[in-house]
Amino acid sequence: MTLLVAQLWPAALAALLLGLAVGWWFGWPGDRAAHAAAVLIAAGARNLAAGAGGAIVPGEPGLWVETAALLLVPYAIGCVAGAALLRRGPAPEAPRRPDGAAKG
């Protein structure tokens, strides 16, 4: 797995950036169906990590499973961070003068 990390760090960085974009774009799950989908995705991720950690799948398909499990972690971190950035909201506007020009 360490060799995968050394070889796939550009893909891990891309997964992190993609997760940031997706998390910022969609934000936190808002309704019951979205929460259920998030729980199902988390359960699938847990199963994927268990399969990768237990070396259940041998050979090249096992490499694919380990790679997917490895890249899912930075993607999920990016999604949470992007949604947290979205929750903070936009920066407050500067106060305006009566003639419409910004102060400062």
Keywords:
4 helices; 104 residues; mainly alpha
Give an account of the 3D structure.
The protein is mainly alpha-helical. Helices cover 73% and strands 0% of the residues. The protein is built from four helices and no strands. It has helices at 2-7, 9-26, 32-53, 59-88.
DSSP strand (E) fraction?
under 5%
What is the typical, i.e. mean, pLDDT?
78
Quaternary structure classification: single chain
Spell the H/E element sequence: HHHH
State the helix count. 4
Q: Gyration radius, to the nearest Å?
A: 20 Å
Shape: elongated
Termini separation:
54 Å
Low-pLDDT runs of 5+ residues are none
Helical proportion, percent range: over 70%
Structural category is mainly alpha
Main sheet attributes: strand count, strand direction, barrel closure: none
Could you tell me the number of beta strands? Answer: 0
Short description:
With 104 residues, the chain is mainly α. Helices cover 73% and strands 0% of the residues.
Task: Please render the helix and strand layout as text.
Blueprint lengths: L1 H6 L1 H18 L5 H22 L5 H30 L16
